[in-house]
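Appendix B, Record 12. Input sequence as logged:
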Amino acid sequence: MNQISKRETEVLKLVSFGLSAKEISSQLFVSEHTVNAHKKNISIKLNSRNIAAMVRKGFEKGILTIQH
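Logged structural output:
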């Protein structure tokens, strides 16, 4: 499995907070197309079929953590 990049990690974190591609693109100053490309790459790298699985695998692999 390829490791996800720093930018993909940022996108995954924002996805886990429930942000849309449009909201993520605004926060990261990139196009929605770029956000969607990152989401697709993350999905492939984590072998996930949907957003819920992508976020779950992000937690399982320690890419995402719960912050208090």
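The chain has four helices and no strands.
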